[in-house]
Predict the 3D structure of the following.
Amino acid sequence: MGKWPSLDKIDMIEDSIDDETYERKLKKLQYRLLDLQVHHIRTGGRAIIGIDGWDAAGKGGAIQRIVYGLEPRSTLVWRIGAPTPAEQGRHYLWRFWDRLPAPGNWSIFDRTWYGRVLVERIEGFCDEDAWKRAYREINEFERQLTDDGVHVIKLLFHVSAEEQQRRMIERLDKPHKRYKIGLEDFRNIAKRKAYVEAYKDMLDKTDTDHAPWHVVATDNKKQARLAALEVVVEMLGQGVEIVEQELDPRVVDAAYKLWGWKPGHKKDGGDKK
């Protein structure tokens, strides 16, 4: 664990990127991500991608680009909101244990268990002893997961106050985006200073070797999406060599009997022998 700078002191200057370059880089990362997912499906690998950050920081857009092209049955996206009455009667980590990925699956969390040390801390939804204790509980939770072979990737999406305001006003101006904004957003924005302090404590206390934090500057949405995918690809690709899957000889034999097909052989007429 190291000492992180305050988020509002992070350099947010980002170079622009043209559409053609963006699309080319995005597709390359998405293809690589699919290769890694297929590898996990074949080997029973499990991954958790936890995404937290400010309102209007581009979390949803990044998730959309991460899951695009992936095998949907093995990709689970969990949008985490306020706990239900049933969940409130259990330990706050219970609802996350209940959503962990099975072998071969990836779970993507749109907001995470860090709500205990962020919104619950700021809004007083739990007492001080509870949120201070949560740093240890969360580190132990993530240690258990990684010790069990789960890849844990944590992304924090940071947007400047000025860009956040611009995006919020855009949501107000555009009817099809108004569903994204509510009174609680204004309540959170008004407490930005408190949230900056909470984010710093979170980074300092839960940035570990087994589950490190990755802060993504998001004032430039395209660069942020590429940066997020690059982190996921890099983390999931560590120590992985993608090899072409061998054909099962029984499958080859069945294809030959039915269609006259065999590896390296193409016939005109499709199913004619």
About this structure: The chain has eleven helices and five strands.
